[in-house]
Amino acid sequence: MKNINNLTIEELERRIAHFEDRLTDFIITEEQRELIKESLRELKNAKERKAS
Predict the structure, then answer these.
(1) CA dihedral defined by 19, 22, 28, 34, rounded to 10 degrees?
(2) What are the tens digits of pLDDT across the range 1-52?
């Protein structure tokens, strides 16, 4: 994922919501699901660092 440290909290929240929505897609593979989960972890960690 590109440098997420420069994103605003609002943009991080938007991306988190996007990826959480993707997890409910029925047409994605297990591999894609794992990539989405990893992206979510990165985004949530970045948001937590920014918020503190």
Answers:
(1) 30
(2) 678 888 999 999 999 999 999 988 889 899 999 999 999 999 999 999 999 8
